[in-house]
Amino acid sequence: MTRRDQTKPGKAGDIPPNVSEQIDENLKRLYSDAASEDLPPSLMELLDALRSQDAQHSAGDQ
User: Fold this and answer.
1) How big is the CA angle at 35 (ends 25 and 41), to the nearest 5 degrees?
2) What pTM does this model have?
3) Which InterPro entries does the UniProt record give (predicted)?
4) Residue 2 lies in a domain
5) Domain total in the chain
6) What residue numbers bound the domain in which 39 lies?
7) Is residue 6 part of a domain?
8) Angle CA 48–54–59, to nearest 5
9) pLDDT at 1 over 60
C-alpha cells in the first residue's frame, strides 16, 4: 500500500457535533474517575518522604 492509498484523518470540523459532545463527555468522565482514585501506597510513601525532606530543609533555613 502506498502513502496515497492511506486515508487521511479528518479535521476536527468534520466530526458531527453530537459525536464531539459524546467524546467530550466520555473524556471528562474518564478524567474524573481517574482523578478521584487513591494514589498507590508506593507513591504516597514517596510524597511523604519528599515532604519530610522539604520540611527538614525549610527548618534548616531558619
Assistant:
1) 155
2) 0.45
3) NepR
4) no
5) 1
6) 20-61
7) no
8) 125
9) no
Grid cell listed for 57: 530543609
User: C-alpha grid cell for residue 47?
Assistant: 510524597
**What's the distance, Cα to Cα, between the start and end of the chain in Å?**
68
Name residue 48's amino acid.
D
CA atoms within 13 A on the CB side of 52: 6
Amino acid, single-letter form, for residue 11 = K
Q: What is the pLDDT of residues 25-59, one digit of tens each?
A: 999 999 999 999 999 999 999 999 999 999 998 88
Distance between CA atoms of 51 and 5, rounded to whole angstroms? Answer: 55
Q: Among residues 26, 50, 23, 28, which one has the least CA distance to residue 39?
A: 50
